[in-house]
Amino acid sequence: MDNLQRYMAYLIRWMLTALLLIPAVGWTHGMLDYPNTRQGICISAGNYSWPPDGSGITPGACKTAAMIWSNPADRLYPLSHWHEFANNVAGHRDLEKLKAHIADGTLCSAGDPKKRGFDLALPDWQKTPVHVVNGKMTVRIVGSQPHVPSYVRVFLTRPGYRATAQLRWGDLQLIHTEELSSYRTDWTASVAPKPAFVPTPIGFFQFDVPVPNGQTGEAILYTYWQREDTGNEGFGNCADITFGGTVIPAPWTPKGPFIASDIAPKPGETVRVRVFGSSRGFVEIVDESVKITATNEAPTQWGLELKNLLAKHGQIVQVGVLTGNSVVFDPNNMAVNQFYVADKDHAVQMSVIGGGTDPGDPPPVIQITGPTLLKSKQAFTFIGSVSSGNSRQFIYHWAVPGMKEPYNELTVRGNALDAIGEPTRSIARLNVIDPVNNKSYQKEFEFTVEPDDGGGEYPAYKEGTAYKAGDIVTNNGKNYKCKPLPFTPWCAGAAWAYAPGTGTAWDQAWDEVR
After folding, report:
1. E strand residue ranges, 181-231
2. Which helix (H) or strand (E) holds 12?
């Protein structure tokens, strides 16, 4: 039972992580990312998927926003839809219609109740320092599928604003409107690096915005990016900023739970923690151990002893919960404590040594989940999970017929190859490389690809077809009707997301015909 629970925990963790990496397709989606939005900061922290109860979420405001929901799926939804803080406002050129459609107190969620945690007025929302040069600041919107023509309204809270209540239209002043006719892809010349949480961003919009005189201290920058098409979809985002002074984002990078669920030493064994440098060869730069006895067998005891030993390496590694810019150890709830390193490329390993063996070094347990039966050219998603009983970081590489980049993450996507005449047996292979021990491991997952004969009285679904509202297609043995506007454009989206009956968000575009 423990093994099953552990496997399910890791599976949930990686499935939730995979959801965060799903890019928007079919319709235009995007987000203000410089200055960074509330959801962008929460995604970058990377703590939404573990532990499943949400206790490890950081920073603090992100945790507060998430914990209004009681289950992991609801907590994750706003971040898996970071690019869809959106609403549909007819007559959007009329600012008063926009204000009437998105009510006071719901601006940061763009009026979407599923994302309302990001509307909360919290003093610890992380604030981005902005630099005003010649009376202007730079703004960037990243698009997973930038759309032109479009335009942006940029608002700023009035001087002296204090975030004691959720943002209202009356708190804002319109400071700029930008018409967008083209997007950029020259990331190296942009104001900030390409955001790491977007696997393959297509492009961005960047422009300067005049800052009103007398604007100092803390503020909220609010942007509403509006598409010019029949769908009327627009995207509202809040960025917490500060003018003047210096606010330094927390430098610490999380490296997993301090005490993993399968670390359970017995008296006579030794718990060992090592930190490996990022230079070639992964040389140990920290090595501390605690001997387990009958008096310190409880995790709260030996965990505290180990944390105290690691304290002398505080410039390299810390243990606790990220609070603001500090890592604070919680001695009463070991489950919430995590390893944090100052260098994101450092690796941390905890192992239990006893009887001449080191359980930290056995091969990792690798699992693959995905479809066992596909049609020719049907979109697929395979998800890997890897558990090792320590916080070690692995390198991944997939080998799947028909896969598309990226190949080096725990999730791989693509389209099955053609099966001509008869079913074809195929294999999804996940290679896991341990850079510390210079070893590699492999897991295979068998699936079958069948010829696609359409299978119904309606034409077979074909990815990328410009379907119209009411069009009926057959896919996976069932019939589906394309939804009316504003949902119709999604019917032409990528198959892995919008293929009727099988895509991850198919029901946003199609209705099943019974």
Report:
1. 203-210, 217-227
2. helix 2-20
